[in-house]
Fold this protein.
Amino acid sequence: MVSEKKKKNLEKLKKILKSYKCILLFDLKDLPSKQLHIIRNKLKEKEIYTMVSKKRILEFALKENKIDMNLDDIGQLGVVYSNKDIFEIIRILRNLKVKRKAKVNEIISEDIEIPAGDTNIQAGPAISIFKQFKIPTIMKGGIISIKDPTIVCRAGDKITLELVSLLNMLGVEPIEMNISPEKGHYENLIFNKFVLQLDKDYFKENIKRIADHIFKLTTYLGYPTKDNIDLLLQKGIGTAKNLSIILGYPTKENIKDLLLIAKYNANK
């Protein structure tokens, strides 16, 4: 039997899919609940909302709303929904970053630097781990203080158990993270991860380049559009004038030119 909680979640998702024009799906796998809570509260201030859903329940909701979206490649499912433009939401998600604790054996993308200052750690056995990472220290009233900022791990290196112990002891959370959408649905269109990773300017520049090509092609072919009609008229007027001069057919636009040509021929 389906539980009442699952029924409520299904009804909520169905309502979201009908009421909000943008839905983004992301994987919760590497996003701890503490960091998710921070992100959720900050997004709410911008009228962007999140919820966690069971994959099977969302599949039912999508099916009832006739949205064809495959969820097989998403592990633990998170949902972002809003009525904002999809690329505005993506921009906000990219800029909204939080930090978490390091994990043993993960490879970092940026250097980890331990800042200078008091640590609130009492002198004693703990001093040995500072020496292991060549962190210069001094004692202040029995408390370990770091003399200079020190890089303890370089980008591309793997985090060791000893480093995790040091970072946790100092309360340093060095791993930066944000919500990275895997799939999206916006105004009846499905967006995959590749498209969602593109910058909005990418589309602007490509649309601008395509429009420029179309303008040049339609102008070359003499095919009128609202963008090239003024230029085509100017070209047409110029061509007609040149042709009338060649044929010696007088018009108010070419009469001066014809008189000059006649005068020139008479003086030969």
